[in-house]
Every structure is written in C-alpha cells, then in structure tokens.
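Form 7-S
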Amino acid sequence: MKNFTKEKLFEELSKWIESKREQITESTAHLLRFKTISGGKTDFEKAQFEKALQECFDYLETFSDRMGLKFKNYDGKVNVIEQPEGDKVVAIPVHIDVVPVGGGWRYPPFEGVIARGKLWGRGAQDDKGPAMACLFGLYALKELGLTFHTKTRMLIGTQEEVGNWSDIRHYLDREGAPDFGFTPDGLFPIINGEKGIMTLQICLECSEIPLTDNEIEFYELNGGDRVNIVPDYANLTFLLPLDNPESALKKLELEVREFLGNNEDAKIDLPLKIDEKDEYPGRKKVVLHFIGESAHGSLPWNGHNAILDGLKFFSKYQKYSYLPLRTYAEFICKSSLDYNGKGLDIYKMHDFIGATTVNLGMIRLSRKGGISYLNIRPPLGLTIKEIKERVEKVILPVRTESGINIYQKHEGTGAEALFVDPDKYPFYFNAMKVAYQSVTKKLPELKAIGGTTFAKALPNTVCFGPVLEEGDEKELAHMKDECVTIDELIRNTKIYGYALGLMTANLSS
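Output:
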C-alpha cells in the first residue's frame, strides 16, 4: 500500500479520474438506460419496475466486482457496494429509482444520450449520475492503493422517490447506523439543513346528483402523477348537452379563450374537439387539456401548475357543476395558490431552513367526490402534528358552513425538518469542505434546502452536491431535459473521491 500526503492524494486522484473520463461517462450513460420508475400503480408498471431494478442491480454487481469492491444484496430492497477495510462506517445513501418523465424532452429520457457535451436522461442529476460519480471516486482510491481506517458503504436505495424509505430502514435493521454519511442528492457545498416533508390529502365525499340533459355538465378533473412534482398537465372534462352539442362546444371555447386572455400564463389545447372515442352513455364529452411546466415539488415556483389553472377555470365557470364540487374546487384553489402555505395557515419562516413550501401535485375529482394531494415541506419550528391541527382548523368552518363532507387524510408518516450540527462532526465536515474547495476553488458554505433526501433516513447524515448553482448549471431534478455536463460529472467524481479519501484513508501529514 502507498503512503500519501493529502496534497499528493489530490494530485494522483485527479489524474486518475481524468484518465477515466470516457469510462465514467459511458458507464453513467448505461445506468441511465434502466427504466427504474418507482411508485407504479398498475400491476404492469410494478412488474416493469421490478424487472428494470433487477437488471440495474445485476449491472452494478458485475461492475463492482470488476472494481474489486464488495457487493451485498439485502433481499432485493437495498444493495450495498462496500470498501470493507476499517472499523467505523461512512455511508453514502444513493437511489436508482426515478420519477416519471412527462413530455417534451429534447432526447429520449431512457437512452443515456451523450450530446452537446452533456449526458441526458432521467436520473442524470437525481440520482444515478451522482451515484456513479461516488462509485468511481471510491474505485479511484482503491486503484491508487490506499490503506483505509474506515469502511465506505454505498447504499443503493430503490424507494427514495416514493417517500416510504423502507429500503434504508431494511438496511438499518440489518446493519445498524453508520458513524457518518453524506448523500449526493441536492446541492453543493454542504446541506446540513432540510425542510420536513409530508403528504396531505384533502378529500371530498358527496352524493352524485342526476345529470341534466340540456346543459354542459362537469364530469371530472384529473391532473399530476406524483405529489412531489409540479404537475405539467390537467384534464378537465365536461359532458355536452344532448341537444346541439356542437353549439355548446363553441360556447365553451369562447369561455376558454376569455379565460386565457385573463390568465396569460395558462395554456389549453385549442381548438376544442368532441371526444368521439370515450363517450359517457348518451352524452358526448370534451376535454380541456391544461398544459403546465414540471419542476421539483420543493421548488414549485420553478414550474407552472396545470392543476391550479384547471381549478381557476372550474371556479370561474361554476355554473357547470353543483355546490359541493364548486365549494371544494374553490377551497383547494385558494389553499394551494400560495406556495408558502398561507392558505392553509401553515406558513412558517426559519432563518436557516427557510419558509414552508406547498405543492399541489395531484388531483382526482369526479361527480362523486375527489382527493387532492399536497406535498408540504415545513421548516424547523413547525411539526407535522402542528400542520395537521392547523389544517383542521381551516377545513372545519368550510365543512360546517357548507355542510359538505370535506376532510384531511395523511399518506405515510412524513419526516420532520433536519439539522446536523457541524460542531459535533468536525472531522467529516472538514473533509467535505477541503474536497469541495480543492476542486472548485470556492468557499464551502453550509446551506439548507427545501428538498428531502436520504439524509433524513440516516443519523448524522448530510446532503453533499451534486449541483453547483452557478452560471449555466441548474438543478434539473424531476424536470424535463434532466442532464449533466461531462465536465460536471468529472468534477463531482473528484470531489467525492477526495472527500472519501480524507474521511477513510490513512494519510501522512
């Protein structure tokens, strides 16, 4: 084994990684080609996910074997790639599951296209690209012949995007907690504060009233696929009257154009057309396709919420439905328009963590009732229990005054806001700071984010990269055209490799 100073390690590590630029790029592109979309609802979607997951694990196992690293499969729920020397454990939780892609991509999202100096595809930033950067960083240390005093375990998760984190809990049940950890699933420099997260369902139950044959009638409003994504579509469907549906269609289109004139950011497919393929018994249908812009649910202002546009139209032209639906739609719209939760009386500002964030991610509304799914991210000082109590106080008068059955439900347990004190772990924080500054020549500040990462699933764990929001580099997680430049990928590999070397290897002074 070789004896390295910190300076010599950085020099040799950088050279080795640069020499593997093409291999790192191609290997990452290969990883992006596995269609590991978690959270499927149908049996087919679930089977496709399991198939892609197994193929991805097989690839990673073969890859880690070639690197001389140890691979462990924990019942197909989580896999570990390990450098096994040492007594303590540094964990790197990553995930290979991804969110759905939506439409409008420049390049196919599961082909790992390398073009324009970038690697394109779902997972390029979140989280397959960073996972491969960490893996090659660990591989570089082993190839350079270092001796280690601390184990490194990459935890390859499969359920991060659906929020239940049963994969990481399964690992903790088997192996216990690491001494320290970082996850490459956010921003640089070091994220030691995160907002909490919970999914709130606001539900409506009502009795369906008979249709009137000679009126335009509301049928359903559906939008969004994931609660942690700003929805880029919403479909508002109406039934046309039996008598002269074409005339009613023209009337509805005039109202749509009036709405668009008063809402410049809204987009609806025009001209409207009668849906001949899917008719309600005896009635023709027309679907208003609202078009939004997807973004990460922690940054709803970066996108455009198509569901909110649908609710605004529905609220304005409420003659097309009856009271319970109108009251519910108006309440959801009013409650969700403010991204900081003021409409639900859950606004809270923290000096380091920031303010409450609310994203209306999904809606399923019919003539019998519906559910709206809100992704809520509170800062320190606002607990999940308090959110439930405050929301109930907002809902209660609506339920009491209108007499409609509107109520809240909750999906999963959620997670409280996170703060990791750097004074308790100076050795590990210093390793990340030195690695970041050595590669980027920038000061390593501590930050907080609104996103939720595996840092919450493990004790003593922070978020470390992979995105440096400067110049043209932007966070593209959950957005169309997710990509990473080759230079950024190589930069990140150097940062992660050097940080791990400083944390786990025996280095001379």
